[in-house]
Amino acid sequence: MSTEREQFGSRLGVILAIAGSAVGLGNIWRFPYIAGENGGALFIICYVIILFCIGLPILMTELSIGRAAKKSVGYAFETLEPKGTKWHYFKYLIIAGGVLICAYYPVITGNILYYLCGVVDGSLLDKGISAHDQYQDLVVENSYKTVCFSLIAILFCACCSWFGIKKGIETVTKPLMFLLFIFLVVLCGYSLTLDGASKGLELFFVPNFEDMTLKSFLNMFHAALGQVFFTLGVGAGTILAYASYMKKGQSLFNESIIIASLDTIAAILAGVIIFSICTSYSISVGAGPVLVFESMLTIFKEMPGGHLFGSVFFLLLFAAAITSFISMYESTNSFMIDSFNVSRKTAITINTILVGVLILPACFASSFLADVKPFGMDIISFEDFIASNVLLVGGAFIFSLFCFTRYGWGMRRFIRSVNSGEGVKLSRFTIGYIKYAIPMFIFIVFVLGLIV
User: Which residues is 250 bridged to in the sheet?
Assistant: First the structure.
């Protein structure tokens, strides 16, 4: 097997690529409505604490394994595992999480692309048709449009990966991430000028303890845990794949802090935007997954400058979605390259066909497959549940055990890898917490995800 491994061209490139993997729909689409459903400010406080106390060490496990092995999950365990152990058998479970996400994530990304095009040309801003009816028309009556736009999203990712890490993924991800944060700041500033913005800020930043009960706190805690796993995308090998292209100039603890901080900033800015707009136009911030597709479109139809604002908003959402999807797509490419020793272009061709077929059930989940309800859930919700609550959490648990126990790579090698390079180092006083508390928290997430 070839030992040559392409690398990112710059430190900024790898940080923005990994941040782009983390800063996706979980921040712009999911975080605002999850926060709205779980108490606003109290949820945010809980989320930030969990992100840095639990999410950060888990993020470091993937980064350290990937950078040390210089392989994707397809061959990382074989490279680092002690002789005679069988950790490499777990790679199929881990990659399954990424593959399953690729079965529905392009569909959501494709719908966002459809909305972007429809808002730009004005076809979705017809006040005579409700946003709900327009969404139903897309996902139910004309689901072939969902297929077409989902395939466009897949082909976009294929083109990015075709030219490699430096000339393809880094070249595309860097400007997209700059664009994403610029739009977030601009839209945040604009949303604060709306009449009801102060009410939204109060709901978003001022904690309300009056209605807090033990049950609501546990639900909020579980939601925050789930959001951290969802937004960071840990457990599927995507971060590991990107880390395998990293240089060793900076400590991984240092880089993890930067990535987690960018992720948090993006989520907070998105929350300010959504909360300010929703309270200004009397829309519930807890509207659920359709908040972006129905509630926001309703607002854009009514607000002054809605055409421009809506165009920028959906462009922002598409940039967030596509940077995350590129990382998932590249993870499966790297798995094929390392596992089967094929060329990048061969892996991309196979992967594109595979993902193009896998998305079909999700594309038709609301049309002729609407009656298919595994465990009472529609196809997309079921795929998301299995991926988020079982495979991703299971993958994170495997990574933590591999890094923290003497039966795997081991805590000593993990700490040495994390602290290798310049920047902030992981303190030895945190070793006990990381070694014992992190696997326990992951196990709690797994159990709660199945019973709550």
Answer: 422
Tokens coding 106: 């392009």
CA gap 200, 276 in Å, rounded:
5
Burial class (CB in 10 A: 0-12, 13-18, 19+), 310: buried
Average pLDDT, the chain: 88
What string of DSSP letters covers 353-383? HHHHHHTHHHHTTTTTTTT--GGG--HHHHH
The pair of structure tokens assigned to 169 is 């993924």
Whether pTM > 0.90 for this model: the answer is: no
User: In this structure, are residues 271 and 227 in contact, taking their beta carbons and an 8 Å threshold?
Assistant: no
- C-alpha of 331 from chain center: 13
Which string of b and e fits 52-81 if b means at least 16 CB within 10 Å?
Answer: bebbbbbbbbbbbbbbbbbbbbbbbbeebb
Please give the biggest Cα pair distance in the chain.
68
Q: What is the DSSP letter of 426?
A: P
Q: Which among 414, 409, 436 has a CA at the least distance from the CA of 87? A: 409
Run of H or E residues at 88: none
Q: Three-class SS of residue 18? A: helix
Q: What is the DSSP string of 183-206?
A: HHHHHHHHHTTSTTHHHHHHHHHS
The pLDDT tens digits of the residues spanning 93-152 come to: 999 999 999 999 999 999 999 999 999 999 999 888 888 888 888 888 888 999 999 999
Rounded distance, CA 285 to CA 40, Å? 9
CB 81 within 8 A of CB 409: yes
Is the CB of residue 283 less than 8 Å from the CB of residue 299? yes
Cα separation of 6 and 310, whole Å? Answer: 39
Give the amino acid at 160.
C
Angstrom CA distances, 89 to 65, 70, 74, 398, 408, stand at 16, 18, 10, 11, 13
Encode pLDDT of 391-416 as tens digits.
888 899 999 999 999 999 999 999 99
Ramachandran angles phi, psi of 422, nearest 5°: -85, 160
Distance CA(249)–CA(423), nearest Å, equals 9
